[in-house]
Amino acid sequence: MVTCSGLVQAMDPDLPHAGRGGLKEYMIDGYCPSDVVGSSVSLTLAYAYDDWAVGQVAKHLGNSSDVLYFHNRSMNYRNVWNKEHKLMCPRNSSGDFSCPRDPYLNNWVIEGTAYTEGNAGQWRWFVPHDIPGLIDLFQSKEYFVSELDKFFARSKDDPYNILPNPYYWAGNEPDLLAVYLFNYVGRADLTQKYSRWLVQEKYTTAPSGIPGNDDYGTMSAWYVWSALGLYPLTGTDVYFIGSPVVTLAKLKLQKGEFVINAYNNSKTSVFVKQAKLNGNTIDLKVSPFLHHSDIISGGKLEFWMSEQGPTEFHE
User: What percent helix, strand, coil does the chain show, rounded to 5?
Assistant: First the structure.
């Protein structure tokens, strides 16, 4: 029988873990205490995601007890959420929070903080394994949309005009998924608006055309997927629908060819007026997603682009 015992052993706090401090405390308290280990918030969020990933392996191997165990532990991200400030904040061993006064201050550049290569405003969105749960923490979808919209709008302004951007920062991993979160709250138009802005403004063909360290192709992969008008949710069969840059793309797959057409596409036609998969209309407000099974055997995805977002997103 194939097991995931190796992955389970990797989560053993009594074994040495280079770069994975605070693991024992995480397993006892449900978070990494800020008075025990640096980057405590980032580590807690990363460990929670890692737990979910191990649980997914266990699920495919049929180990139901491990599935439940690691799923429950993956919810530990909630333990660093501060309800008052609506942020992921450091907590000490006594359970007390110490939220930053300015969540967008990039003091991590010059000193150690509870956040790795990012600030509280940037790590606020890193719960890729439980997006509906993250949205619930904001208490209303309207507030979630408002805060996420502000996060990108201020990034466009970039008051400091230097890297790293204190708001959405295209050059690092914690926020790569953030632009697609609008799809979960009925505002696919904002995903389309900001993902196209990122593709067109943050990437170029110059030697410095990638907005950060490519990290084994991470930045390049983000661009390629987003240029196609899709983005995969890692560890799932879900693909977010965005705003394609290409007018025609053909994906050569083992079982067939998947063709993407974008009609009336231009630099200013960033909104998807209508989308169809194999001739069937996709409801972009209710379900702006594809699944792996929709793509892997080939097919046709069509976009009709417009300079104006569909009015139903504002209803």
Answer: 40, 15, 45
Terminal Cα-to-Cα distance of the chain (whole angstroms): 53
Nearest to 2 by CA among 51, 87, 62, 52: 62
Neighbouring C-beta atoms of residue 177, cutoff 10 Å: 19
Asked whether 304 and 274 are in contact (CB, 8 A), the reply is: yes
Backbone angles phi, psi at 119, to 5 degrees: -115, 180
Question: What tens-digit pLDDT sequence spans the chain (315 residues)?
Answer: 455 666 666 667 677 666 678 999 999 999 999 999 999 999 999 999 999 999 999 999 999 999 999 999 999 999 999 999 999 999 999 999 999 999 999 888 878 899 999 999 999 999 999 999 999 999 899 999 999 999 999 998 875 556 688 999 988 889 999 999 999 999 999 999 999 999 999 998 888 888 888 888 999 999 999 999 999 999 999 999 999 999 999 999 999 999 999 999 999 999 999 999 999 999 999 999 999 999 999 999 999 999 998 776 765
Residue found by looking up tokens 């992969």 in the block: 221
- pTM, rounded to two decimals: 0.93
Residues 146, 151, 155, 156, Cα dihedral to 10°:
-20
170 near 247, Cβ under 8 Å? no
Per-residue CA distances from 186 to 85, 123, 152 (Å): 24, 22, 17
